[in-house]
UniProtKB/TrEMBL annotation:
InterPro entries: Isoprenoid_synthase_dom_sf (IPR008949), Polyprenyl_synt (IPR000092), Polyprenyl_synt_CS (IPR033749). Belongs to the FPP/GGPP synthase family. Keywords: Magnesium, Metal-binding, Transferase. Signal peptide: none annotated. This is Polyprenyl synthetase family protein. GO terms for biological process: isoprenoid biosynthetic process. Its cofactor is Mg(2+). GO terms for molecular function: metal ion binding; prenyltransferase activity.
Amino acid sequence: MTRTAPERVRAADDELSDAVEEVLAAYLERRGADTAAIDPAFGAATAALTEFVLSGGKRLRPTFAWWGWRGAGGSPDDAHAVGVLEAISALELIQACALVHDDLMDASATRRGRPTVHVDFARRHAEAGWQGRPARFGAAAAILLGDLALVWADDLFRSSALPVEALRRAAAPWEAMRTEVLGGQYLDVLHQSTGDTSPRAALQVDRYKTAAYTVERPLHLGAAIADASPELVACYRRFGADIGIAFQLRDDLLGVFGDPAVTGKPAGDDLREGKRTLLLALALERAAEQGSRASAAAIEAALGDPDLDADGVDRVRGLLVDLGAEQAVEQRIAAMTGSALDALSTADIEEPAASRLSDLAVAATRRRR
């Protein structure tokens, strides 16, 4: 049974993930009916998108947006709190777009322990015996469904029950965030294609592909909805940029050293996909400094090798540890988390949001998945 608006807002205060899930489920059910009216086949395709959105995820982006709003004076008792919940839930549809497209670009086979969207639709094509190449159909379906997720994100955000002025204020971070994440994705593809393994390139991708739309802009969005001061917005952005990059650096470590049973992705998948992460950049930089051509050559050979086996992954792991790259990234995560918390302490952020943001910073950078 659908809860009443006040119940949804109370849930958003204490059980935000469930509340966001409820908003998304209701919205996607309504939009799914729209697509089924176009054609049942399109409805079936968008049902796969709905399943993808609702099948898991940390709901980290709306969580930061909610507490950014609360820290700027927003209250669950506010008449527009339900509108805030609806607006920030739209962030999960931007996340869905990014993941569907990213999995396609990286040729990832699984996501959250399940086949990725392009793989799923390629399988449907093959099983049905349709004309053409299954992989091409799967890629086309993933592009279109990712685009639809982005369109629906904007629709949900702009149709939320927020006052016109709040929507107007929130437009700037919303628009910047969408451009930044796509810019970051393009730079990621570009750097992989050009072979740029520099730490600068890796951090540039981390800044725009992850940090901006994971922490920094969601906080900015919540602050804008609450009409926060420029000083608080600046604090949030400093905090968000540092925590967002630290979050991605933890992801990079998990992509090589993580347990597949926990992460939901095969061990070493980042290596097979050729991701030019800071972890790999520092390893190659240190190998060059130490004159270890053999180590550099082994890492370069593994990077982007789709047939890299478990033994190959273990060899690279050993090199990353021996070269000190793993430790260096851990130290970078700790330093950026510390600087983010320092930024948080300089602003007048209302409780319980200040404490909650501090806890989220630690949780986001010490996670195992």
